[in-house]
DNA sequence: CAGTGGATGCTCT
DNA sequence: GAGCATCCACTGT
């Protein structure tokens, strides 16, 4: 069995996604399906963190914590937030400058029972509505820091139809808080906050 | 529904 | 020792 390398496959589609500048990648990532060991759902909320953005972890320069951000695109940058939660980012091109997209919320579609057990909440809208909740539901920890998102245990599958995407300001930051680099699916009940119309 | 504060651990100065 | 790219429980309307 030989693969047809002249035809764009899933790998190159993902590479094209990671090759975008962070704001465009953050918007383009909406609607893709992300899973970890088969558990996850559709990305409905992201935020872009540009290397020249004071709110980005990479802004002060390379440190042991943010080292993965300065590496190849398409990898997971996982950090601990407020001593309690984990948060998951995707590293974007160009390699070396440390751009990233924070994945803030999923619409749960795969492994609902596993997510409910890990989260301990009755309301499915709260399973993955926020970066910390998302990582708890998918069991993402520091062990995943630096792993490629197009290989197990991760899987990233392209969206079928283009969702309606809305841009707003980012959540929970104090620096450069006015930049409209948060993207979400219009009207989704699964985003971390904002209009849920549902 | 809005506002407040505590939990908790790691990173960097 | 300060400051977090958060979440939850609790308060008061």
Summarize the structure.
With 198 residues, the chain is of the alpha+beta class. The protein has four helices and eight strands, in the order ααβββββααβββ.
Pick out its properties:
DNA-binding; alpha+beta; 8-stranded antiparallel beta sheet; 198 residues
Describe this structure in words.
With 198 residues, the chain is of the alpha+beta class. 17% of the residues lie in helices and 27% in strands. It has 4 helices and 8 strands, in the order ααβββββααβββ. Strands 1, 2, 3, 4, 5, 6, 7 and 8 form an 8-stranded antiparallel beta sheet that branches. The structure holds a DNA duplex (13 and 13 nucleotides).
* Secondary structure: number of strands: 8
> Fraction of residues in helices?
10-25%
Give the SSE order as H and E letters: HHEEEEEHHEEE
Q: Poorly predicted ranges (pLDDT <50, ≥5 residues)?
A: none
Global Rg: 16 Å
Shape verdict: globular
Largest sheet: 8 strands, antiparallel
Mean pLDDT across the residues is 92
Distance linking N and C termini:
47 Å
Fraction of residues in β-strands = 25-35%
Number of helix segments?
A: 4
Structural class: alpha+beta
């Amino acid at each position: 069995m030989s693969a047809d390398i002249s035809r764009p496959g899933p790998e190159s589609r993902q590479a094209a996604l990671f090759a975008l500048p962070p704001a465009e990648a953050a918007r383009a990532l909406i609607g893709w399906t992300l899973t970890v060991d088969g558990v996850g759902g559709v990305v409905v909320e992201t935020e872009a963190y540009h290397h020249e953005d004071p709110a980005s972890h990479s802004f002060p320069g390379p440190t042991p914590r943010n080292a993965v951000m300065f590496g190849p695109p398409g990898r997971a940058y996982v950090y601990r937030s407020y001593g309690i939660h984990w948060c998951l980012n995707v590293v974007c091109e160009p390699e070396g400058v440390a751009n990233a997209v924070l994945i803030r919320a999923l619409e749960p579609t795969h492994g609902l029972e596993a997510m409910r057990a890990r989260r301990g909440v009755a309301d499915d809208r709260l399973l993955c509505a926020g970066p910390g909740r998302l990582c708890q539901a998918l069991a993402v920890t520091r062990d995943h820091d630096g792993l490629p998102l197009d290989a197990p245990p991760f899987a990233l599958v392209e969206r079928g139809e283009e969702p309606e995407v809305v841009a707003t300001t980012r959540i929970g930051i104090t620096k450069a808080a006015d930049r409209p680099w948060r993207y979400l699916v219009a009207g989704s009940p699964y985003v971390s906050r904002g209009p849920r119309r549902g």
